Structure formats: structure tokens, C-alpha cells
Amino acid sequence: MPAATVYRLLIDGLSIILIDLLLAGDNALVIAMAVRGLAEPQRRIAIIFGSLAAVVLRVALTLAAARLLGMEFVKLLGGVFVIWIAVKVLTDASSPPAAAPARHHLLQAIWFIVVADITMSVDNVLAVAGAARGSVPLIIFGLGVSIPFVVFSSNLIAALMDRYSVIVYLGAAILGKVGGEMVFTDPFVTRMLHPSALFLYAAEGLSIVGILAVGKLLSQRSRDA
């Protein structure tokens, strides 16, 4: 193989890894929020299997990124789902992980991870596809390398949430911003509303405030019940 080709492959591979790691922060956070209600052994299983499944599906999404980004309602529904996860975690924040409601079972957590990761990655996959120059092996390599980073980050964030409850609220606020941005940058919403930058900032702020208020209210009702 010519040296120039090897050099280009190395540069493209490193670019994909860096892009995926830089864009993996939100994904690690939503995974940590999704598994907070599980016991420690189940938490590890959910993160590993959920991340692996999400990466496999993300490879497929990357290959069809241009079409997906143009589809209406994909980001809209994904944003609503992310916001729902944030509210649900805040609702259960008054209970320690071991005493969380029964609905926090393993398969449900894995499902949350896969759906949230995929819907939040619609924009990310386009950057990876561009850096890979259409090379499927490079796409698979770059996304595969990101698995250990996401797994480690998710475990660390979930453990910190167990110790410091304020991180749960901070995480919910971040997911509120992400979810609000996804909803109002969906092609259908932009076509109907033509939102300005100021409108997007206001919508993200309202999403954060709404999540914290509703989550706090439901959490208080859960404690009083």
C-alpha cells in the first residue's frame, strides 16, 4: 500500500475518533441518566449492551446520514424522548437507586439508551460520514473505538449522581437544552416556524425551566404519596 494512502487512512481514522469523542458527551450523559435507577451490576450490563447496540445502529445511520437529516419528525420525536427521560429521572430523584420504581428494569434501560443515543446522533453521524470519505471500515473503526470512552464516562457520571444529587438536576438541565434544540431544529418545525437564533435560545431555556419545574413537582408528589 502506498505511503500516501496509509497516511491518509491514519489521518481520517484519527479525525473520526476525535469527532466521535468530542460529540459523545451528551450521549454519555443521557446513558447515565437512563441507568441511574438500576443496581450496580445491571447498570454495567445496560451500559455495555446499550452502547454496543447503539453503535451498530449508528453505523447504519452514518451510511444514510444525508437522507436521515432531511427526514421530518426524526429530531422532533427524539427531542421529546430526551426531555421525557430527563423528567422521569428527576421524578425518581427522591429515591435512592436501589429503591427506584420497578419500571427501571434492565431491558427498558437498554431500550432507552439505544433510542436516545440514535436520536441524539442524527447530526453527529454526518460529521463522521464526511471524515470517513465514504469508507465503511473507517466508519466502523472510529465508532467502535468510542465505545470504551462512552462506557467509562457513563459509569462515572452515574456514580457521581448517586453521591451528589445536584448532578442529576444539572444533567436534566443539559438534556433539556439538547432536547429543546432537537425539537426546534427538526426540518418540519423549521419549515413551519422559521425560528430565529433568539427563538432557539428562548426555547432551550424554557425547556430547561419546564423540565426542572415538572420534575421537582413530580418528585415532591412521589415523596408525599
Explain how this protein is built.
The chain is mainly α. The protein has one domain (3-224). It has eleven helices and no strands. Helix 2 (25-35) packs across helix 9 and helix 3 runs parallel beside helix 6 (106-120). It is globular, with a radius of gyration of 18 Å. It starts with a helix and ends with a helix.
- Helical residue percent band: over 70%
Number of strands: 0
Q: How many structurally independent domains? A: 1
Radius of gyration using CA atoms only: 18 Å
Cα distance spanning the termini: 68 Å
**Number of helical regions:** 11
Contiguous uncertain segments of 5+ residues = 97-104
Order of helices and strands: HHHHHHHHHHH
Shape, per Cα inertia axes: globular
SSE class: mainly alpha
For the biggest sheet, the summary is: none
Strand residue content? under 5%
Mean pLDDT: 75
Quick overview:
This protein is mainly alpha-helical and 225 residues long. The chain has one domain (3-224).
Furnish the topology, listing elements before pairings.
Blueprint: H1 3-22, H2 25-35, H3 40-63, H4 65-70, H5 74-91, H6 106-120, H7 122-132, H8 136-163, H9 166-184, H10 187-193, H11 197-224
Characteristics of this structure?
mainly alpha; 0% strand; globular
